[in-house]
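README, section 4: Worked example with a bound small molecule

Sections 1 through 3 covered apo chains. Here we extend the same pipeline to holo records, where the ligand is supplied as SMILES alongside the sequence. The molecule in this example is magnesium ion. Nothing else about the input changes; the structure line simply encodes the ligand pose together with the chain.
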Amino acid sequence: MPIAIACLGRKGGVGKTLTASSVAALIAARGQRTLLIDLDPQSNAAFVLGADPAAAGTAEWLAGHEPCFQSVNESLAVLAGGPSLLDYAIARLDPDSLKRVMQEQSYEAFVLDCPPGNDQLERLAIYAADRAVVCTDAHPLAVMGASRVLTELQQRRSESRPGPQQWAIAVTRIDTRRSLDRQVSESLGKTYADTPLFVIRQDSGFALAAADRLPITEAGDLRVRADLQALTAWCFDGQN
Ligand SMILES: Nc1ncnc2c1ncn2[C@@H]1O[C@H](COP(=O)(O)OP(=O)(O)O)[C@@H](O)[C@H]1O
Ligand SMILES: [Mg+2]
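The generated complex, written as structure tokens:
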């Protein structure tokens, strides 16, 4: 059975795309054939992996057209996002549409990069995912967005509605020298004591590698790699 992991968070700029693209690259580095599906009209995931962000991608796939599965390396492919995700045809899709097209593919792992603030696109991911990574940074508004997602996931699971059965929190861009960052991580850990929490440290080399369009597996020695590897191990094995 393939695994499907959604990176969610209602706010923009909280590290969803860098987390999703790194988890995808690290799963692929374990030899699993992995597809990163970009559900964001801004199409940043393909860009940071060095692929064409304007190629026919997730929207075309969902609309029943031929998309371009762009190879990043031997084990990793990416479907670009893009503005067509905002088309009326996508807005009218059944919520299990993404899950259905994923089932026609032979990848061993799917990683879904969600957009901020688009319920319909997020719902497609929620229906398709076995596991979710809820991303937030230390900003109170981001934590509020993540809390809403966590409440929704909890509610769906308790009502046996479609959606991930397991989830983790990724607190991104954390500088442990900043007291706000430490406090936010600790307080999330207390509030969601039963939810695995991963601290993804701030790493300017990581941001630079993304700007240079290098996957984390090709980005040299980064301190954030160990953090993302721990998160990937949970995504892959459900370990914590
Ligand atoms: N761990 C990190 N260390 C340093 N910069 C980061 C880290 N994670 C994300 N960033 C930077 O933060 C910005 C937003 O990240 P991104 O992954 O695009 O967020 P989102 O997809 O939630 O909008 C980008 O400029 C990215 O380079
Ligand atoms: Mg993004």
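What to look for in the output: The radius of gyration is 16 Å. The chain has ten helices and eight strands.

Section 5 describes how to batch many such records.
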